[in-house]
Specification:
By secondary structure, this protein is an alpha/beta fold. It contains 15 helices and 13 strands. Helix content is 46%, strand content 19%. The strands form two sheets. The chain has a seven-stranded mixed β-sheet with strand order 8-9-7-10-11-13-12, with helices on both faces. Strands 3-4-5-2-1-6 form a six-stranded mixed β-sheet, covered by helices on one side. α4 packs antiparallel against α5, α6 runs antiparallel to α8 and α13 runs antiparallel to α14. The longest helix is centred in the middle third of the chain and has 30 residues. The chain is flat, with a radius of gyration of 28 Å.
Length: 443
């Protein structure tokens, strides 16, 4: 455990008024603060009703005092919790009193950071704490809880163990070249690489699904003017959020709305119609639309059933896309779903609602993949680290038959280090600061 000689304090409950508010203290001064504020140090993990007193001995409030001695606490340090009435004035007075007794205000995420540094949580679990707090749906909360329970970390660790076995075999080939045929037989290494590749592919797919679940799926509605993009947004949201007129170019800016489908949050972005335009304002809207398309996880490419498609409105290459044929009520076409070489096409009417159930089902599939039963929360940072590990793993496999064992070993080492960035085995202080600065104060 890392020894930290600073004691920190923060309000751990949300701002505002409530029946109960909690002030949390962590560090070597927690015991003295408990005695000064509450008159005595209660037994570990036993709630004690006390009168909290200021420096002059006057009562601040009556509430519960709990003490969690190190290392059996959230942070791994001595931790004190003061449960008082949830008024801002009372809680601020308790924080001031703790600071007067030697504590300092905690930084955002500093309690979780200390838990990580003291080995109570790995980095993936610490980030899951923030994801659980920020969850806006039950599915997000369940996934964050799985990561907090260590599901993501266990799968990363299993992959690391396979890489370690590979590295042992390859290092043996380097150190004992005369026994290389026996210690690092090519078939054995190939089998281990196949095993690592299978574990990696499954983990990457699960992490990407977790990242979509945690951050929400960015869905951009794009197409030429007057194909019904804004009408489609309104239909999916269930209210008239976007202005709809028969005048081409009505939408000039990006309009975003969030919806939740089966516990997964989707951020829908309605964009300006894509076409050639000399209008300065419309041109800026088109530029913003193309920026939004480049950031999209999924594009709904809308065309009108009663008009030819505009080639300018095609989505960027490499971005997942669902083709929407809108206005089928004007063309006398029934709603339907087609699976073709370009991908999925759904024919619907945003005006009448016909076929919207087909689109919602397709959006659920795009967001959840095989489902959310075993999903864990993940972040873009973790997915990017996995992708780097995968690139090194692929390079190691290619180098196995075309290069020296030293190059294979280096790629395997780099893959293991990239995986270590996920759980915090290999992590820079700058990255830690960036991660924990996004947490709540008091957590």
């Amino acid at each position: 455990m890392r020894v930290n000689d600073e004691t920190i304090v923060a309000i751990a409950t949300p701002p505002g008024r409530g029946g109960i508010g909690v002030v949390r203290v962590s560090g070597p001064g927690a015991r003295a603060i408990a005695r000064a504020l509450g008159g005595s140090l209660p037994p570990p993990r036993e709630a004690r009703l006390v009168t909290f007193r200021d420096a002059a001995g006057a009562a601040i409030d009556r509430g519960l005092l709990l003490f969690f001695p190190a290392p059996h606490s959230f942070t791994g340090e001595d931790v004190l919790e003061l449960h008082a009435h949830g008024g801002p004035v009372v809680l601020a007075a308790l924080v001031r009193r703790a600071c007067g007794l030697g504590a300092r205000p905690a930084r955002a995420g500093e309690f979780s950071e200390r838990a990580f540094l003291n080995g109570k949580l790995d980095l993936t679990q610490a980030e899951a704490v923030a994801d659980l707090i920020a969850a806006s749906s039950e599915a997000q909360a369940r996934a964050a809880l799985r990561s907090l329970d260590g599901e993501f970390s266990r799968r990363v660790t299993a992959l690391v163990q396979t890489l370690v076995r590979l590295r042992v075999e390859v290092e043996a080939a380097i150190d004992f070249a005369e026994d290389a045929a026996e210690s690092a037989a090519l078939p054995k290494l190939e089998n281990l690489l196949v095993e690592a590749g299978a574990r990696y592919a499954a983990l990457l797919a699960a992490a990407r699904r977790g990242a979509r679940l945690t951050g929400g799926l960015r869905v951009v509605i794009a197409g030429a003017p007057n194909v019904g993009k804004s009408s489609l947004l309104n239909a999916l949201v269930g209210s008239d959020r976007a202005i709809v007129t028969a005048v081409p170019g009505t939408t000039r800016d990006v309009l975003r709305e969030a919806i939740v489908l089966d516990g997964v949050e989707l951020t829908l972005a309605d964009t300006a119609g894509l076409r050639e335009s000399e209008d300065v304002v419309e041109g800026e809207g088109i530029r913003r639309a193309r920026v939004e398309l480049a950031r999209a996880d999924l594009v709904l490419q809308v065309v009108a059933a009663d008009a030819p498609a505009n080639p300018m409105a095609a989505p960027p290459v490499g971005v997942a896309c669902i083709r929407i044929v809108n206005k089928i009520d004007l063309a006398g076409v029934a709603p339907h779903r087609e699976q073709g070489p370009p991908g999925v096409t759904i024919a619907l009417s945003a005006r009448t609602g016909a076929g919207l159930d087909l689109l919602r089902a397709e959006l659920r599939r795009a967001a959840t993949g095989d489902g959310l039963e075993d999903a864990f929360s993940a972040r873009d940072r973790q997915v990017q680290a996995l992708e780097r590990a995968g690139a090194h793993l692929a390079a190691a496999r290619a180098a196995l038959v075309t290069a020296t064992p030293e190059l294979v070993a280096e790629d395997l080492r780099a893959a293991q280090q990239a995986l270590g960035e996920i759980t915090g085995t290999f992590t820079s202080e700058d990255l830690l600061g960036a991660i924990f600065s996004t947490f709540c104060v008091g957590k």
